[in-house]
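Action item from last week, closing it out:
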Amino acid sequence: MLPDLSDSLDGHVPDSYTPTTLGGTSVASVREMGRARLTIAIGEHMRIAAKTAESITGVPSVVLDRVTGLDAVDRLMVCLSTVAGVPVPARQRRARSQLVDAMLDGHFYFGGRSVAIAAEPALLWSMGRLATDMGATIAAAVTTRPVPMLAELKAERVIVGDFEDLEDQILEAGGADLIIANSNGRQVAAHHGIPLFRAGFPVFDRLGAAHLTSAGYRGTRDLITQLGNILMERPGHAHQSSEHAHGHQSAAAG
């Protein structure tokens, strides 16, 4: 895995202070990457790096735009299963089934809701795709730099800007049911009475952010659960949600 910041950002107390990152991928391991059967690049921003490595080493590469969401994780599993020559493990198939169930239960609370997102491009793409796949609309989308792929996001427009731009977009859209942003979005959320789901970097006003996972089948399942629970509690949606849930339960019982 390159780069690998997991030892530095996993929320632990190191034995001794160092001004640089802890752990990570060693130079020897980087050299071994040239002997791999496949290079998997995660995020469109890694395409140039993947193609550069392929041109140097001859190792084929594939670029996955994200690893959050059912179809996205399916693509990852197909890549791994194909290159390894073995079936997808039973535990991953089970995790996929749990994700599908979470999507079925959760879409009642996402459908017709509006979400505002402020994030760097890869996170905006991942969160935006998940929200729209679940039936929500994107009321506002703000990122840090222009990326052509974001034109494919189901949003009226994506703005390169700051939280003031996010607030302007929310006002233009007539409000939002949820804001997804790092901790610096808390003022906008509080000012407009909109719940904030903290994602990205930094998250400094909540405990345990370093240990939350939003990738893979289980991570996507947990993310949908967390977002859905927030939307479920959003005022004005309880009656509609209960009717949907009752219909779902009746259909399941039938």
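Closing note: The first strand starts at residue 39 and ends at 42.
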